[in-house]
Amino acid sequence: MLSTMKTLRALMRSPQGAVGIVLVTLLLLISIFGPLLAPQDPESFNFGARFSPPSAEFLFGTDWFGRDLFSRILVGARSTVLLAILATVIGTASGALIGIFSGFVGGWVDELIMRTIDAIMAIPGLLLALMILTVLGSSSLNAVIAIGIAFAPGMARISRSTTLAVRELDYVSAARARGESKLWIIFAEILPNMVAPVIVEATIRVAFAIMTLATLSFLGLGAQPPSPEWGLMIAEAREHMFRSPWPILAPGISIALVAIAFNLLGDGLRDVLNPHSQE
Amino acid sequence: MTISYVMKRLIYLVFTALLVSLIVFSVTQLLPANAATMILGEYATDEALAVLNSKLGLDDPAIVQYFRWLSNVLQGDFGTSLRTSQPVGPTIMDALGRSAILAVTSLVLVCIVAIPLGVLAASRRGKPTDLGVSLVSYIGVSMPEFVLATLLLVWLASPSVGLFPASGYVPFSEDFWGGLHHIALPVLTLTIVLTAHISRMIRSEMADTLEMDFIRAGRLRGLSKRRVLFHHALRNSMLPAITVIALDVGYLIGGVIVVEEVFAFPGVGRQLILAIQNRDLPMIQAGALIMAGSYAVANLLADLAYGALDKRIKY
């Protein structure tokens, strides 16, 4: 807990870290309380006010049904931001487990796992996610699973190399000499040392996950109508794109802002937790 | 670089290609409905399904089916599309040619724009130029291709502005300027996104190189700033740049899929999305294999270029 506070304080001192943590906190609050904050019903039609530009009544304007874009963005934050975080957690946890196991066991098992991971990483990320969705079928949750699986190999590589580095250190040898069990060594000695690099990587991955999730929904393979998921909002707005740019601008800028926020936080965290590899 | 290194890399390429083909085949094997069900529809009788299954060889063990598929693919036969009943091979090869135009044009433009931009930012570290380049590339990195593509479409292809066509493709052999006109927006999108990625990487590589002793030695010897920058520092940053660009080819392939969909450009990406939406098995397999194959070849070329350029490394 003390070290968490220390990290946080160091983070607030760097400009990008400070902006990142403030933006991300704000975003998480919006994602959780979005439906309560929305000034209007995101699904209610206002046929008198179709394609309105931003105004006091409709902060971000309205779409082709006259739905309030501001309210839709607030409600849709949940299905974009929280699901992207979930995808990253799935990818990080499974990747870290595979990586630790592979690095800890070593030998031909390690070799087999790492060569398989090389082959999976030889497939471009979006293509891999598309293939997984082909099998699972199109839905928000399946898109989350697909992104999680696509993230796992990269995460496995990072945690394996950390495991290999930590495994040779004296205090691990000491634990082994004390006769501690393998599980104890993994969870009490190796895992805590991996937290920093894995968290840095995971934060930057959230930005990727948000962009990929929105892309999959845009391609019709993720969230399905009438969900106010941001990528899907843009896909639907394309039909009316020359009538008004606001139904595209509002979710488009939101996606970019969220990705920027997580990128800033990730870069800030890397500088704080990993002073050797700035940039 | 020795012949044995090239051979080793080629063998590794074949190995990767085999594993990727195995993954592509397994993924399509996992689909809930097989090809016979898709051809005959959901109301097919069991007898008709059994006849077609044995005719298509779908009763054989998976491993037998894999090797049959692989040997057909190696002979250029990707099967018949379930959607159009046309042979998949020629369709996908035509589409690949068109996608390659997008990818290669963007990659060349990116190298022309991103490398000088990264060098400029690194040489003016902390000054307004650097902050400007970094800010713009930060935004570019955080903007998914489909958002940027749609915004460019709304801005430059709207009926009132009408600078570029909103969608489609014209072969260069028919109408050169028309062809150029049609690839302009997709290429612009890909170039902007990739430039943001690569100029950031080049900047940080260059910034590291500029801190090194031999750069200071060059400046102290009285060499001009430009000479040190372009002859000494850039040359040493080129090697990591090649690796970065090769890795970003994977990103470029994802971008090509999205951009083709946005601009209704008839390339491999659009074929693949169409195939996924229609569960057109042979087309999915061919599209995925071709794209993963292109990525593997790009990585091979980057490794060979690396080996040829870096005299220090003996493989």
Please give a structural write-up.
The complex is a heterodimer of chains A (279) and B (315). Chain A is mostly helical and 279 residues long. Chain A contains 10 helices and no strands. In chain A, α2 crosses α3, α3 packs antiparallel against α8 and α7 crosses α8. The radius of gyration of chain A is 22 Å and the shape is elongated. By secondary structure, chain B is mainly α. Chain B contains 12 helices and no strands. In chain B, α1 runs antiparallel to α12, α7 crosses α10 and α10 runs parallel beside α11. The model of chain B has no long low-confidence stretch (mean pLDDT 82). Chains A and B meet through α4, α5, α8 and α10 of A and α1, α6, α7, α10 and α11 of B.
In short:
The complex is a heterodimer of chains A (279) and B (315). In chain A, 75% of the residues lie in helices and 0% in strands. Chain A is mostly helical and 279 residues long.
Question: SSE layout and pairings?
Answer:
The complex is a heterodimer of chains A (279) and B (315).
Chain A: H1 2-13, H2 15-37, H3 69-105, H4 107-121, H5 125-136, H6 140-167, H7 170-178, H8 182-218, H9 230-237, H10 246-273
Chain B: H1 3-29, H2 35-40, H3 46-56, H4 62-74, H5 88-123, H6 128-141, H7 145-156, H8 176-210, H9 213-220, H10 225-262, H11 268-278, H12 281-309
Helix pairs in contact in B: 1-12, 5-6, 5-8, 5-10, 5-12, 6-8, 7-8, 7-10, 8-10, 9-10, 10-11, 10-12, 11-12
Low-pLDDT stretches of chain B are none
Biggest protein-protein contact in the assembly: A-B, 42 and 46 residues
Please bin the fraction of helical residues of chain B.
over 70%
Query: Percent of residues of chain B in beta strands?
Result: under 5%
Features:
heterodimer, A: 279 residues, mainly alpha, 75% helix, elongated, B: 315 residues, 76% helix
